[in-house]
Backbone:
DNA sequence: TGCAAATCCGATTGAATTACTAGGAATTGC
DNA sequence: GCAATTCCTAGTAATTCAATCGGATTTGCA
């Protein structure tokens, strides 16, 4: 039941873009430095996010990345699904794979995994990047993360 | 966010033992046949469950396995934790690893993962093997799974 | 007493995944 | 034209997954 670093790093990187939303593109190097992530690795993750339409890129010298939508319109669930795939603990409750299990009909565990999936989705689909920014602003009242650069 | 087959098979195997609870030991071969699991593989999983005190074994010719507690006293969460480890989506909200992340203090994502963990736990810790047997009995009213052997 | 059925235990293995690392091409602001 | 950036592809060491196998030990039963 682990989330890989793809999802973890992805959410942190997207938060960083949300944090600077409206102030022009942010370079990957900046994001990587602020969140302690390898630039090379982050490069791959952001490519997936870009292809999924969650971020836009600006090439060239002062280029970087920008959220494709406003922070309030992107949820943690959006990011995780793009980077980790469907949030189904097992394939038989993954709607993208309708008939993956021959035992589905008589399987007693299927409804349990569906409940787990729903519980996870309810959390991650209700938290937006805007929510995260709000939380961070509240928490850092007077310390640390108010550095102007 | 996937559950490995360890957890899936483990829950199904434990359900099978619950299904025959009070009727003497059930051999691994029987469990494996009924749940379409490799006996060799299941052998490894049941060994873990035994060492964790969830099942007892009876060796010898008519031996097999028996739940160590009554079905109502074993939850899906018990089984998953034994076979898959702590249900923390990331290590920083795993209570067994107190100081695994230097960024914990200023990390905005930590509380999200804690919410995900809690949501999962609320589901799997509230479902017992007895619940599963009850559900199965309800569902199979008149079809299939009432085979006398 | 011996056979068969079972649990036990440890080793191996092919495939996939993870988390990077690296190299180099293309784009663009200054 | 140079430096900073995005873009694309490939490689790679380590780990985990999901079995598979061989053989030792225990025990019920004829």
Residues:
């Amino acid at each position: 039941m682990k989330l890989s670093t793809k999802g973890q790093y992805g959410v942190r990187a997207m938060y960083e873009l949300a944090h600077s939303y409206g102030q022009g593109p942010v370079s990957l190097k900046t994001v990587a430095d602020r969140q302690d992530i390898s630039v090379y690795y982050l490069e791959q993750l952001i490519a997936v996010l870009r292809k999924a339409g969650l971020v836009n890129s600006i090439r060239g010298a002062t280029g970087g990345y920008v959220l494709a939508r406003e922070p309030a319109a992107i949820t943690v669930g959006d990011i995780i699904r793009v980077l980790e795939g469907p949030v189904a603990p097992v394939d038989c409750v993954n709607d993208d794979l309708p008939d993956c299990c021959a035992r589905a009909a008589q399987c007693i565990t299927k409804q349990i995994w569906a409940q787990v999936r729903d519980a996870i989705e309810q959390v991650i689909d209700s938290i937006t990047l805007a929510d995260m920014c709000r939380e961070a602003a509240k928490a850092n009242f007077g310390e640390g993360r108010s550095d102007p650069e």
User: Anything to note?
Assistant: The longest strand of chain A covers residues 55-58.
